[in-house]
Design goal:
heterodimer, A: alpha/beta, 44% helix, 7% strand, B: four-stranded mixed beta sheet
Chain lengths: 315, 199
């Protein structure tokens, strides 16, 4: 069975006219400013870094260009518009299903993974912040949702889930249609197993090679004021070069990782690669033309663009 | 039907992970020396790698043969498959490497690395303990599934190290390990592992 190539939202714009919306629920902006976390590192032990990050995020979400110099002041009040900002969905509407809840912050890579799947299927959702600075991730309420005290957590009616890939699969199965089967489970085992292979490759090969570069170049310096460990960066880049060579060979044979149309396997690469492109080493991808074209194709997806809006690129 | 080929080193815990599920399904397979990425599996024309993807492929393709390791739909199964991959494995794998594999290669365990990962694994196993204490006989509920099977190889090797107490000291985790480790398919898998003779 051939899958339509969904390369733009025009493929779905002919369906329902009503836009579905998601809302960031109102939060208490008087106390702590900002809630975000990377998958393994708690960002916000350092209030000063939090304020810088927060101000950048404020400007980014509101669509302004960040100033050339970092702002010296951030006002908590500026957060209120962000929190109340609605994120537009494509016109492909799923209003017959009640909104699901995602607990976490859109900057977090694992939260972004889930949000991307929600956006791809056009589901209605509500994003509920988890206040790491106030220790909310360790609160009994959150630990009941995620026993590891991490984000994201997820709720659909009575069902509560954690682990971003399990949540993503739940979403992709629930909202699956004949035209939209990002797991390929209706296409037979040969196709679905390829999605599984490249999903595992992202988790076990790609991510371990790429993530130390992101941590060393962005997360540790911004969040802890730590100096970049260049040895770790260099070793990781070498390893990543090897991994990208395998990807280049794969993408010679098919347009996307698991076949000729996009799948969950490709989408899993988005969150960390997005941040990698904000490090000084983005040009590594220039050495691998097929990989680079594949990445640019992912970035051009409307669902990816919508998720990117809440992820900063300047630090 | 030609036997399934599992490419890899028979001592590798990731190869053993796949062997455990092949045995659970009662499938005919042979372990052959590897090419490139290990483990890799060849079943007819299909070639796969990544042991967890291989296991899911085997469990899905041979669903009606032997116990059903992927009963659907199960969000709980998916969750605990991910927990193995992203919480259990990152903590236990370096421990097993330092305490078992490195000495086999002639090196000495790095105490700082061991302590760090043992502490991480302890916290992870606390979550397992709470989960299994809530009336879950197995990770995804009442039946043995792929989520349990994917833990066998590293749990087994962990129990061969001084950090075996991480399991033994947690009653529900221990009870779960005691049950899954006596499954005939697992015993068959262990019997086939070519451990080097002790020095």
């Amino acid at each position: 069975m051939a899958y339509p190539r969904v390369t733009s939202s025009s493929a779905r714009s002919s369906s329902s006219a009503s836009a579905t919306r998601s809302r960031l629920t109102k939060v208490d902006v008087d106390s702590t400013i900002f809630r975000a976390v990377s998958p393994e590192v708690l960002f916000f032990h350092y209030p000063w870094a939090t304020r810088v990050w927060c101000s950048l995020l404020t400007l980014r979400i509101n669509g302004d260009q960040p100033p050339k110099h970092p702002p010296t002041q951030t006002t908590e009040q500026s957060l209120a518009p962000i929190i109340a900002t609605s994120v537009e969905h494509p016109s492909h509407s799923r209003t017959n299903m009640s909104p699901v809840k995602v607990f976490g912050h859109p900057m977090s890579t694992n939260v972004a993974r889930v949000l991307l799947c929600l956006e791809e299927v056009g589901a209605e959702y509500e994003l509920v912040p988890v206040d790491f600075l106030a220790g909310e991730h360790s609160s009994p309420q959150h630990v009941q949702r995620n026993p590891f005290g991490k984000i994201p957590a997820f709720q659909d009616g009575e069902l509560v889930l954690f682990e971003s890939r399990a949540i993503a699969k739940y979403i992709l199965r629930k909202y699956k249609t004949a035209d939209l089967d990002l797991l390929r489970e209706s296409s037979g085992i040969e196709e679905s197993s390829m999605v599984d292979v490249w999903t595992e490759v992202e988790a076990q090969q790609y991510y371990p090679a790429m993530s130390p570069v992101v941590f060393e170049c962005i997360i540790f310096p911004v969040m802890r004021g730590a100096a970049t460990n260049q040895t770790v960066v260099d070793e990781s880049l070498d390893r990543l070069r090897g991994v990208l060579g395998v990807y280049e060979a794969r993408l010679e044979k098919s347009r996307y990782l698991a076949g000729d149309s996009v799948s969950f396997a490709d989408l899993n690469h988005f969150p960390f690669t997005f941040y990698f492109m904000a490090t000084p080493y983005a040009s590594l991808f220039d050495e691998f033309p097929k990989v680079k074209a594949w990445w640019e194709g992912l970035m051009a997806r409307p669902a990816v663009q919508r998720v990117c809006k809440n992820m900063p690129t300047e630090f | 039907m030609a036997p399934i080929k599992l490419y890899g080193m028979a001592l590798s815990p990731n190869v053993i992970r796949a062997a455990a599920v092949l045995n659970e399904k009662g499938l005919d397979f042979e372990i052959v020396p590897p090419f490139g990425q290990v483990p890799a599996l060849q079943d007819g024309d299909e070639v796969l790698y990544e042991s967890r993807a291989i296991n899911r492929y085997i469990a899905t393709k041979y669903k009606s043969q032997g116990p059903d390791l992927v009963p659907t739909p199960s969000a709980k199964l998916e969750t605990w498959l991910e927990v193995e991959s992203h919480h259990f494995y990152p903590a236990v794998s370096p421990l097993v490497f330092q305490l078992l594999i490195k000495p086999m290669l002639g090196g000495a365990p790095d105490a700082a690395v061991v302590d760090k990962h043992a502490a991480d694994l302890a916290k992870v196993l606390d979550v397992y303990e709470a989960h299994l204490a809530k009336g879950n006989k197995y990770l995804a509920g009442d039946a043995y599934t792929l989520a349990d099977a994917n833990h066998l190889s590293y749990l087994f090797l962990l129990t061969k190290t001084p950090k075996a107490e991480l399991v033994a000291s947690r009653p529900h985790v221990k009870a779960w390990w005691d049950v899954i480790s006596v499954r005939p398919a697992w015993l068959k898998t262990v019997a086939a592992i070519p451990f080097p003779p002790s020095a």
